[in-house]
Design brief:
alpha/beta; 5 helices
């Protein structure tokens, strides 16, 4: 299924990063991969980590002021065995592992990285492997550059310009999520926890970073038995685009 999304601004790396980040958060929650909204879960884990850190600091502080040390007993008692470290609950360990994984994904969605690899499409896959997905969502961006995103230009703006650019970026991300919500009834729902894969479609000629592992011959036409599985496609158009541009498969691009 293809969902056209007409943006009110031109797409650059900053806008694309905000859109993909919010789409990932929504899909993780909608596809039952997160116990709650991703921002809320990450905030709760951070607060729990801060409280645990404060407790450790309080336990390490002396119970008496430095100028009034406690009186020493006449006979030293036997040294008690060290206390065992309290084991974290299984649910808390899984939650911390989930948050670390999500933060690792967000590192690859930063504007600088997207501009470096010149990506034109971003594919989010939920399933046991990248070739046998249970659900896939592809984000295709019609940028002004034929080879990918332009670097973000917000660094040269004033404070008012940066604030306006941030609001426009947030509006674009919300627009993308609203488009997904409207069409959510037609999207397949993943039952149970599964793996998540993030793939980028970039030009072959570009100098790819070492963390980018190309999958030569990879295609988004999957089959499960006799049924053909297609990704849930979000097609983003620039504000200056005439709206008739389409995604073209070419050997010059690689996943």
């Amino acid at each position: 299924m293809e969902i056209p999304v007409k943006l009110k601004v031109n797409i650059d790396a900053r806008v694309a990063s905000a859109i993909v980040t919010e789409v990932v958060k929504y899909l993780l929650y909608f596809q039952n991969q997160s116990p709650g909204p991703v921002d809320q879960v990450m905030q709760e884990v951070k607060e729990a980590a801060d409280e645990s850190r404060c407790e450790k600091v309080a336990e390490s502080l002396p119970s008496h002021p430095a100028n009034h040390p406690p009186p020493q007993p006449l006979q030293q008692p036997q040294t008690a065995p060290p206390c065992k470290r309290r084991r974290m609950k299984t649910a808390d360990r899984k939650l911390c592992k989930f948050v670390r994984s999500v933060e690792g994904v967000f590192e690859f969605l930063q504007p600088d990285f997207l501009a470096q690899i010149q990506a034109t499409d971003i594919l989010l896959i939920l399933g046991a492997s990248a070739v046998r997905p249970k659900m896939a969502c592809q984000l295709h961006f019609q940028s002004d550059s034929s080879s990918g995103f332009k670097p973000s230009s917000s660094e040269d703006l004033s404070e008012v310009g940066k604030s306006k650019a941030s609001r426009q970026t947030l509006d674009c991300a919300r627009q993308a999520v609203r488009a997904l919500i409207v069409s959510a009834s037609e999207a397949p729902v993943v039952s149970g926890a599964t793996k998540m894969f993030l793939l980028f479609r970039a030009p072959v000629s570009e100098s790819l970073p070492l963390t980018f592992l190309p999958k030569r011959g990879y295609t988004t036409q999957w089959r499960r038995g006799r049924a053909q599985i297609k990704p849930f496609l979000l097609n983003f158009d620039n504000a200056s685009s005439n709206g008739d541009s389409e995604m073209v498969e070419s050997s010059n691009f690689i996943w």
